[in-house]
Amino acid sequence: MRHPSRRAVLAFAVAAASLLSSAPARAAAFKKVILMVFENASYDEAMAAPALAQFAQSGALLTNYHAVGHPSQPNYVALVAGSRSGVTSDRPVNLNVQHLGDLLEQHGKTWRVYAQAYPGNCYLGAQTGNYVRKHVPFLSMQDVQSDPTRCANVVDDSTFASDLAGGTLPNFSLFIPDLLNDGHNTSVSYAANWFSSYFGPLLKDPSFTKDTVLILVFDEDDRSEGNQVYAVVYGASVSPGATSGAAYNHYSVLRTIEDQFGLGTLGQNDDSAAPINDIWQ
């Protein structure tokens, strides 16, 4: 029997090592994702809030996660469109760009925005009470504004409770707290305590966390830490207490959702973004 040469064995070993080193980390395993966005705090400020520090310990903390601009609105647009789409302010904009909702629908998936204090009826005003349009990026998309059926995917948070009870949460949910509960007009501690009260019981319910991942991020920092912000991923598929120092940003969240649901990409910054692949069980 002819044995392979030492050179052939070495070549095989090098090739095998190359394949192993290039193989992606384990991907996520969830059927539904809820993305929640808080407002205007640095990573350190958020971690100083006991409720958020505790949430980070029970989920997976991304210690090198960054927002992608200032002020708030460009970050919200980036999370669903893969780029800031030329948005540089918080003034209402009307964008003719492809977005996550388009990809989801093209692949038979569902999406919905649960926005606290939202008045309904495809309201496109800049603000009413503690609701602001700048935090609901899908309402900046012309192909949503012009389609009543798609616009009806934006609802207030009372619908979240009924969808949850009825088992009809969509594949992708964007949960937008109002200006009090997101910390914008209050404080990080206020937002953290609201989150703990509102979502705390759900996070202890295995039937909720089994196939669902909750991603909590801040839109931008307070301009003190280079736009490093708090980001935690929580769910049964997440390694509890895990931390990742990989360089992630809002585009990474979008890319992770795209990859999990097999959507492809929008061909923007999401195309080159690293998906979050190193925190899963």
Task: Report what the structure shows.
The chain has 281 residues and is an alpha/beta fold. The protein has a single domain (30-272), classed as Alkaline Phosphatase, subunit A (3-Layer(aba) Sandwich), CATH 3.40.720. The protein is built from twelve helices and twelve strands. The chain has helices at 6-22, 43-47, 50-58, 72-81, 100-106, 142-145, 148-151, 158-166, 188-203, 206-209, 250-260, 269-272, and strands at residues 32-38, 60-62, 65-66, 111-115, 127-128, 131-132, 154-155, 172-176, 212-218, 231-234, 243-244, 248-249. The strands form three sheets. Strands 7-4-8-1-9-10-2-11 form an eight-stranded mixed sheet. It has a two-stranded parallel sheet with strand order 3-12. Strand 5 and strand 6 (131-132) form a beta hairpin. The longest helix has 17 residues, at 6-22. Residues 5-24 have low confidence and may be disordered.
- Please give the order of strands in the largest beta sheet: 7-4-8-1-9-10-2-11
CATH architecture: 3-Layer(aba) Sandwich
Rg measurement, Å: 20 Å
Main sheet makeup: 8 strands, mixed
Q: What CATH first level would be assigned?
A: Alpha Beta
Mean pLDDT: 92
Number of domains: 1
Structural class: alpha/beta
* Relative strand content: 15-25%
Estimate percent helicity.
Answer: 25-40%
CATH topology: Alkaline Phosphatase, subunit A
The SSE order reads: HEHHEEHHEEEHHEHEHHEEEEHH
**How many angstroms does the end-to-end distance come to?**
44 Å
How many E-type strands? 12
Name the poorly predicted regions: 5-24
Label the overall shape: globular
